[in-house]
Automatic annotation (TrEMBL):
Gene behind the chain: LOC116224393
Ranges for domain Ig-like: 130-230, 243-325
Protein name, as recorded: Sialic acid-binding Ig-like lectin 14
Alphabetically ordered keywords of this record: Membrane, Signal, Transmembrane, Transmembrane helix
Gene3D superfamilies registered for this protein in UniProt: Immunoglobulins
Phylogenetic placement of the source organism: Eukaryota, Metazoa, Chordata, Craniata, Vertebrata
Length: 435
């Protein structure tokens, strides 16, 4: 039981030495992790408990941390709870009379990396436990560990967890998320082996915006000797979502009668769309086309007119695209702008004619009134591509060009990632129809 005394008095008698150790093992035992790690200049929290079978520990009791060896001769007592001055500042946090020897040692430097033994002294009893803890002193503080269930499903609540070891209960590291997607909860938790860690839980409802987003957890440690230092771990989010913002576009800006045209169905999704369907509306009748691919090519003829849309499907879901109208008017077309101009001229002419008639000059004025009808004439076989009514209005006011072609000023889509959304919103713009 009194190892110290055996050792001091009978240091050369190894048999007694062994015997003493054997006795101590059965009567006393201490429980602490075999290894602990800390950072140079930081403190170390040592979870520790012991049992003293036959005798209960009375107050006042002294706790000593001995470095290097169980024996006084070979070790160094770095901390003695009954002394004011110690090699290392420290504190016995636990209640020794309850068998709790949990301790903290401050300002641990690299020189203090070693095995540590706990020694208990109360009344006449003195015991140094044979079990020890190896304290490793690292140059850098611990890095955070970020865990996230991946892939995330759009709209399904998810939790991301960031944890970092806390060696120093007085000064635990802080955790922060970047970008800060939602309020997070930070707690100091005790692990099974008694060591502590700071945990931050981020709850989020993933949206497709967050697909591909890099999320970081930053751990900031304040060191007793070196200021503060931060480490981060970054995880790219994968958010699965069904096809979104599907639209049909043309691969070309200029479509001519009889020339090939390629319709492209594109939008954003993760995973990529693996199944396409195409539909065409012609005068209220809808048919599903015999096309299974993202891009379809055909020659423009009178029988290819209609309103096209596609359906895209991936493992998450399906959606339909906006509509693209491919039209080939059978007869002449007059642009609304000209009708308006013609109408205005006609109106004022009639008013003028009416006024003139009252002044008996009706015949000459009515001659001028027919002029607009000639300017309204356009060539046959023109094609226009119409995405929205709004487009049509703008197309109508576009500069006139004598051409049988359609100018469809769309850019070819080159990607279906969400980053293309700016482009997607522009595709309806800038379509010029000419007659
Ligand atoms: C711890 O300090 C007390 C008070 O100074 C002293 O009586 C005791 O012997 C010390 N223990 C060791 C192991 O040095
Ligand atoms: C030992 O003491 C520490 C510090 O007061 C405390 O956190 C821990 O819960 C105690 N352990 C037990 C087993 O009571
Ligand atoms: C740790 O060491 C620094 C610098 O030597 C000192 O200012 C600080 O008070 C010490 N902290 C403790 C808890 O001993
Ligand atoms: C933010 O977190 C709370 C729970 O902490 C959760 O109820 C809420 O839905 C989350 N909001 C978003 C937008 O993820
Ligand atoms: C996320 O991080 C990786 C690796 O650092 C980088 O290659 C990628 O461009 C980042 N993604 C975004 C959206 O910033
Ligand atoms: C559009 O696709 C058709 C068929 O593949 C091709 O002949 C034509 O050159 C393409 N136009 C452009 C501008 O890429
Ligand atoms: C389109 O017309 C060209 C001749 O202009 C012809 O060679 C080609 O086979 C046609 N393509 C289709 C898909 O009908
Ligand atoms: C897409 O449109 C077609 C035809 O109108 C329809 O049958 C289909 O159910 C639509 N798909 C979705 C996902 O709404
Ligand atoms: C469809 O056309 C787009 C734009 O030209 C191209 O990026 C894409 O690779 C094509 N897809 C297929 C399946 O050919
Ligand atoms: C779809 O378009 C809407 C409106 O332009 C935009 O808010 C949304 O982010 C787009 N979605 C994707 C996946 O690009």
């Amino acid at each position: 039981m009194k190892h110290e005394m055996y050792q001091v008095n009978t240091g050369s008698v190894s048999l007694l030495h062994l015997l003493a150790t054997a006795v101590s093992c059965s009567d006393y035992s201490v429980n602490m992790p075999p290894t602990l790690e800390t950072t140079h200049g930081s403190c170390i929290f040592i979870p520790c408990s012991f049992t003293a079978k036959d005798s209960s520990v009375r107050s006042p009791a002294t706790g000593v941390w001995r470095k290097g060896s169980q024996w006084f001769k070979d070790g160094v007592d770095v901390f003695n709870s009954s002394k004011r001055q110690n090699k290392l500042h420290g504190k016995i946090l636990g209640d020794l009379t309850q068998g709790n020897c949990t301790s903290v040692l401050y300002n641990v430097t690299r020189d203090y990396e070693d095995k540590y033994f706990f020694r208990l002294e109360w009344g006449d009893e003195k015991v140094t436990f044979p079990e020890n803890v190896l304290i490793k002193v690292n140059d850098a503080p611990p890095k955070p560990h970020l865990s996230s269930p991946q892939p995330l499903q759009e709209g399904t609540p998810a939790r991301m967890t960031c944890a970092v070891a806390s060696h120093c209960p007085q000064d635990p590291p802080t955790l922060a998320w970047s970008p800060n997607l939602n309020h997070s909860m930070e707690t100091l938790q005790t692990k099974e082996d008694g060591t502590q860690e700071v945990i931050s839980v981020l709850s989020l409802i993933p949206s497709h915006w967050e697909d591909g987003l890099n999320v970081s957890c930053v751990a900031t440690h304040r060191l007793q000797r070196q200021g503060s230092i931060s480490f981060q771990e970054t995880v790219p989010l994968t958010v699965l979502y069904g096809p979104k913002n599907l639209s049909v576009s043309l691969n070309t800006s200029r479509v001519g009668m009889g020339s090939p045209v390629t319709l492209i169905c594109f939008g954003a999704s993760n995973p990529p769309i693996n199944n396409y369907r195409w539909f065409r509306d012609t005068s209220g009748y809808q048919e599903e086309m015999d096309w299974k691919y993202q891009n379809v090519t055909f020659n423009v003829t009178s029988s290819t007119t209609g309103t096209y849309h596609c359906e895209g499907r991936n493992t998450v879901g399906a959606s339909n695209s906006s509509r693209l109208q491919l039209e080939m008017p059978a007869s002449s077309h007059v642009k609304p702008g000209w009708w308006l101009l013609g109408g205005c001229i006609l109106f004022f002419t009639i008013v003028a004619a009416f006024l003139c008639h009252r002044h008996k000059k009706a015949e000459t004025q009515q001659q001028r009134g027919r002029r607009p009808e000639h300017t309204g004439r356009v060539a046959d076989h023109s094609i226009y591509i119409n995405v929205t009514e709004d487009t049509l209005c703008r197309a109508a006011s576009a500069p006139d060009e004598p051409c049988d072609n359609v100018y469809c000023n769309q850019l070819p889509p080159n990607s279906i990632r969400p980053k293309q959304r700016d482009f997607l919103s522009q595709t309806d713009d800038a379509i010029y129809a000419n007659h």
